[in-house]
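If you are new to this repository, start here. Below is one unmodified record pulled from the training split, so you can see the exact layout before writing a loader.
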Amino acid sequence: MNVEVDGNGTMEIREPTSVPGDYYDLRAEMDLLIGISNCPQERNPCNGWNPTPMGVIIYQ
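And here is the target side for that same chain:
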């Protein structure tokens, strides 16, 4: 999600700066309980007006 904030503190949801294939690689150093969302919104540009499935890979 790409949220721009101007000098007055006004926030606006814009089209994402990420592209298909971008990823985050995280390392946990303790046991975690995690919730993940791919922002399935189709009424604003946070997903480029086209929500798509998200993949998650968990390594042990």
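Two things worth knowing about this chain: The chain has one domain: 1-60. The beta strands are 2-5, 11-14.
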